[in-house]
Amino acid sequence: MKIPLLIESKTKTIEGITSTEKRIILPLTIVGRGIIKTKFIVDTGSSFSFINYPTFLRLNLPKGEVIVKDMIIGNTIIDLLSIRNLKLYVRSEEEKAISIITSILSVALPSEKDKGKAYELPNIIGLNFLENHGLKLFIDMKNENCYLEV
Amino acid sequence: MITILDEKEVIEKLNETERDYKWFIKNGKELRRKYPNKFVAILNEEVIASSDKVEDLLRELKKKKLEDAIIEFIEPENVIIVY
Fold first, then answer.
1. pTM of the shown model
2. Binary contact (B2, A99; C-beta < 8 A)
3. Would you tell me how many other CB atoms lie within 10 Å of the CB of residue A32?
């Protein structure tokens, strides 16, 4: 069963040089103490998977224990805290809702050394999430065809 | 644990989420021009609120009972960010 992914493309011109950033994103809903609509960036360069501070606030979750301290990412420094049994819903190509209960995700909170940028981080799905849930990732950037397979 | 469901309401919410993210991607350049370094709330393919601080934005959405929006931080135009 395929779970379609979107490609976010941003073309920026900085000091006369034009470049394009592309990201693969997974739209989904998360159920905590509330239900929220959000997205994850699929990041095969990350060994960790986490929700960001705004998502954490919206889900109204309790703070878990610190599992990684002072991790440097995207121009900031965060602590990763554990979350237990978070329920995600994603949509399959066949219009079925796929529910994923996960304890692999953590929450990225600003560390004491953060310079105010931690709030701006996206939600990230890394390799550990794909591995733990047996998800296969297919990427064909040329034809803009990306999906996860259950 | 992965379970496959056929719940209409969940599918509807997921379709709304995807539709608003497609709109967000399509209108990225305009959003970066209008709302650099701000958190924005998007619902039904329009920006319904924005703020420098995510806490303020969440408070506003709660007050207006519009908590079903997606929330995104708008990166400025002059920065390339690699995660």
1. 0.91
2. yes
3. 18
Bridge partners for A13 per DSSP: A18
Spatial separation of the C-alpha atoms in residues A146 and A42, rounded to whole Å: 11
Is A100 in contact with A86 (CB distance < 8 Å)? no
What's the CA gap between A73 and A69, in Å, rounded?
Answer: 12
- Which sequence spans correspond to the domains of chain B? 8-73
CB pairs under 8 A between A and B: 120
Query: CB contact, 8 Å: A27 with chain B?
Result: yes
The structural domains of chain A, ordered by start, are 2-149 (2.40.70.10)
pLDDT digits (tens, 9 = 90+) for A64-92: 999 999 998 877 899 999 998 899 999 99
Look up the ipTM and state it: 0.89
Strand-pair partners of A16: none
Specify the DSSP element, H or E, that contains A129.
helix A127-132
For residue A54, which amino acid is it?
P
Contact B83 A28 (CB under 8 A): no
In angstroms, the CA B76 to CA A38 distance is: 20
Any B CB within 8 A of A71 CB: no
Residues 6+ apart with CB under 8 A from A127: A44, A46, A47
